[in-house]
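TODO from last week: model Aminotransferase.
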Amino acid sequence: MTVDNKETSYVFQKQINDKGLLCVGAKGDGMYLVLENPHTKEQKVLFDAISGAAVNSLPHQDPEITEAMGQFAKESVYTFGAYYANYAAEDLGKFLCDKSGGDFASALWTSSGSEANENAMKIIKQYHNELKDYKRCKFISRKQSYHGFTTGTLAIGDGSRKYQFADILIDESKTPKVSPVYPYRNQKPGQTEEEYTKELLDELEQTFIDNDPSTIAGMIIETVGGSTFGTSVPTKGYLDGCREICHKYGALFMLDEVMCGLGRCGYPFTYKSPEFGLSSGGPDLCSVGKTIGSGFVTLAGLLISPGVKKVFAEGSGSILGAQTYHSHDFNCRVGLAVQKKIYRDNLIENVRVNGAYLKEQLKLKLKDAKYAGDVRGAGNFLSVEAVKDKATKEPFDPKEKVGTQLGNFCFERGMTIMGVTGTIESKLVNNSELVCVGDHVTIAPAFTFTKEHCDFIANTIAGAFADLEKKYAA
Ligand SMILES: *Cc1c(COP(=O)(O)O)cnc(C)c1O
């Protein structure tokens, strides 16, 4: 069957009237994707600067991992986690709990970040039930955040993905939202970082008070905001302040590090960053995903602090919620092999060192770019926000979809990137038209990226901004 001369796709995803480009392999050092046009069979090789959705920690087809996977396939056995788990799930839990320096004591392994966060909401609720504190039923999160595509996580998330489903989600009265940390736009002229942080924390505390603090179950935020508004890092003291306010009112404090964590921002856990992290200790819960299986397997997880674990251990001793693929033996084996390799080869340090170089190069090469408003992020999780006017920070007309355009320009120049519209806000106008204001591009290459890769990435992004200038030259 053809539609508009295009064959419809057998994969019900994104665009069904066109198969799009299909991946047929990786190339070279595993940092390159080979894409094929299914109609013409024409191929294109692209440097993978975004690793899908910031998924790869290791390169595609890493031979050490693929070799190990062959062995794991022979050794692993599927069991239902509710009855019998396995050594791999235990070992991977211990590995990350050890790396956290005691911040976590247990882990739940799921197949996706959405499930990890969805389970987290239910674990937080159960935690309060264990304490016979049954009234707590609200989750505070932030505007412009993303926590997954299940209905629970969409409700605590924000941005363009949720509007169509608003009437089937947990009511907004139970999911109050506070402002994200976004100094580029929201720190007022003359306001110090400290004052800006205080403003954000005052807003959070007021949100607790306005929503009856005794009914707040927890706060869930991304340590570094991911895809929706482009890797804006917390201000100093912000995370400490959030945790303190949560605990003051008896709520749990949870960080979502599905996209930004496990080395992506240059530290084993992003909340441990000496620049913007917690001054000591960790959150009550922390979700991880994406890089943990590096795209080799569908793996994500939820890490549980000793304090939260203790409440369950000394209470009912059981966690409600067993999904078919929790603690999946094969997936956990692969996840552990990926993590061990990252630590053995000091790849998180590579992210920190080369990431700093890349950020510097981006700033340097975009210094005179007319439309490059802000370069931000940590480790190799970096974004450039595009603006129509650098002085006023005025965004482009949403109809121009500049974020998408920048993504296309990078593609033409041989590189994958995440080109996003809706950086500042997304709203439904007249109940039907989705307007996404603000534009940015985000990168997140595999942790093995080199200085040469950095130069290529910075040059390509600078080239894409030059393409944009050429297009809008009056
Ligand atoms: C990707 C992402 C999720 C959802 O993970 P999936 O594996 O896509 O379900 C949740 N939170 C954040 C911050 C993410 O980036």
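Done. The two ends are 44 Å apart (CA to CA).
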